[in-house]
Amino acid sequence: MIRRIAVLLVCVLVVSGCGGGAHTFVVKAVAVGVPSLAPFFDEKQGLGHDNEVRSLPVRGTLQQGDTPGLYGGTRQPTICDVAKLKRFLTDPANHQKAVAWSSVLGITTDAIPGYLDRLTPVLLRHDTLVQNHDYRKGKATPYNSLLQAGIAILVDEQGEPAAKCSCGNPLRPFKGDADRISVKFADGNKKWHGYEPSSVVAVRPAPRNMDRLALVDVDDPDVGITRPVGTTGRHDSTFDTRRQHAVPNLMGATFGEARRQLVSSGLAVGYGGSAAPSDDARVTASDPPAGTELRFGQYVTLTVSGGTSGGATSTPPAPTTSGPTVGPPTSTAPPSTSPTAPPRTSSPPASPPSSPPPSSPKSEPPPSSSPPSSSPTTGSPSVVTGSPVTSAPATTSAAPVTSVPVTSRAPVTSSAPVTSSVPVTSGPVTRDPVTGTPTTTET
In CATH, what class is 244-311? Predict the structure, then answer.
């Protein structure tokens, strides 16, 4: 009974989420326009300005920084004053804050101006998970944060959040599991309209540095904004987001290849769940299918199989021995008991010997896989002592014979064609030891 109660208690704990694998990550909500309690920069000085933006749904929590339409913008270049933040962090009076700020981003204080010159201001279009940092007691204090859509941030060359514009707080990627978060709305950050846990996104770096970002105008979603990296909006150009883009044929491509094709086509990559497939997983379907026309930034959801994180592999099968091979073919027959015996062939050897050894004993036929016969095969050519069967005339150690050669040891049957005028009997053939003339002996 005690054992049953113990097992039941363990099951209850697992189901209720108390197991070690059900750890939840506490995330502090940060709403648009709500000031930080411990900012790096005084928000009353107008370093950055947020906008009212309704969070958009996502298809796949983890999105890379070059995803078309991931970020928004405005044609008013006032959402983030990068020059003011640079002056503040390079002011000797703020050296301690500069040390704390640069340590979060892994740079030195001397590298701050150049680093800021490569950042680009954008507006969030999705409720976004980040690792935020307050400034407390002379140090940067990290905490998980959910930034509401519409907050202005600076992103680096790979599209990762780097700083919150209004307060200058440095940002890093969210390091927890987006499927197990517990969002706390407190300190004036009330739950905003349109908040949906399924629409939360976490940003991962793009595979390579970008030259420009493709944004969507939050005031007019039919207008796209192309913003060069490291600029604040004065060099923007616009494009029509309503222009249609055909979904490419992605069947059989790896997830990494499919993603690159979609991004280059101005389309976003969607997938099921919060964990992105591995780059080597193979695409088995897309929704919508190839050829469908979509506007800029719309999602194409990919179904994949295999991959290093999917259980199966995408490595093609190795070639089998039954297929064509390069070089000599491999025999599948059982090995011969006499590996040195030449195979049977209908063509003569390339270099037959000119004459057999004069005193060699009677040679045996080459062994084969079939049982030997008790008599020569009818119609087969005569066997010359010590040499392979050929169609050319051969000589013996005795006097030359102008007809088919017959040796003193080769048995001859009546079935073999013999054109010699020498009488042939059923007995063995011998030669006179002096003249070499063939003689017969009755048996």
Answer: alpha beta
